[in-house]
Amino acid sequence: MGAYILRRLLLIIPTLLGIMIINFALVQFVPGGPVEQIIAKMQGEGDVFEGFSGGGADAGGEMLSQGSEKYVGARGLPPELIKELEEQFGLDKPPVERFIGMMWNYARFDFGESYFRKIDVTDLVLEKMPVSITLGLWSTVIAYLISIPLGISKAVRDGSPFDTWTSGAIIIAYAIPAFLFAIMLLVLFAGGSYWKWFPLRGLTSDDFDQLSALGKVGDYLWHITLPVLASTISAFATLTLLTKNSFLDEIKKHYVMTARAKGLSEKRVLYGHVFRNAMLIVIAGFPAVFIGVFFGGSVLIETIFSLDGLGRLGFEAAVGRDYPVMFGTLFLFGLIGLVVGIISDLMYVLVDPRIDFEKREG
């Protein structure tokens, strides 16, 4: 197992490098870099992308190629100012040199400073992480608490009216996009048009610091209820069907028939023999499910509920062309995702020691 883990760890390097190369190369061809963002603000345009979307010939006429006036809207600005902006953002160097320098710093976990927030990327990520961890962890735990009992009940009652109706409800839940479900929750329960039972935005109330310990817990749970429900719905549906199918596969195997033939009760067969084997894929997939909820659905959920988390941070960095935040978070998330893949494999071995990945690879 040690050799397998070592190989997986070594594969992280080329995989992560490939991710960074592809994204860095794509960014070089995307208009509206940080210099253009500053120029747009200086010209009072507000949004740099307006120059790209309006009237092709006029926009093209603004794209000058002489000296410092190679940027959209740079006409009339001193070349010295443009050069100073390029030096400030490190854009005066060739792309290859910039990429090598960036990866050297990232290898030492030095992610630099945000262009526009004037704060270290690491500190920025740590500041936003509690919100995303809240959504990811609670959503995953609730999804497992609901999905496992429901999936087992569906497997035991396969083909019954209960199985049919719950399958219909699960399919509907899976088909509803998380952002649409989030909007529906806001409309129904956050004062949109009906009941105002939950707050509209934020993770805590304005007077959170003045509340008692019990009051803080209650306020926190009150605020996270709707965002967690919105981010749980798709994971809950997938896990329920996965649990059911896994139990059905195990129930049909010969060792189950043998256990029944020995006179063991159905409950003993189900939870003493079937449960461990059937739950292997479900339990071992916990890290991957958590990361999927943590990174996948957080952008829209955080935006809709005005939560200042990592998803929203990455989106704003991409729109604002804040390259240190963009590439720093991409590197961190890519690294975490690859490490979680290894952890998932270790979870398989922990749940069922009979699994040997080295023999499978051989």
TrEMBL record:
PROSITE patterns: ABC_TM1. InterPro entries: MetI-like, MetI-like_sf. Keywords: Cell membrane, Membrane, Transmembrane, Transmembrane helix, Transport. It comes from the Bacteria. SUPFAM superfamilies: MetI-like (SSF161098). The chain crosses the membrane at residues 9-30, 131-152, 164-190, 220-243, 278-305, 325-351. Its main location: membrane. PANTHER family: INNER MEMBRANE ABC TRANSPORTER, INNER MEMBRANE ABC TRANSPORTER PERMEASE PROTEIN YEJB. NCBIfam families: PRK15133.1 (NF011712). Belongs to the binding-protein-dependent transport system permease family. This is Microcin C ABC transporter permease YejB. The lineage of its organism: Bacteria, Pseudomonadati, Pseudomonadota, Alphaproteobacteria, Rhodobacterales.
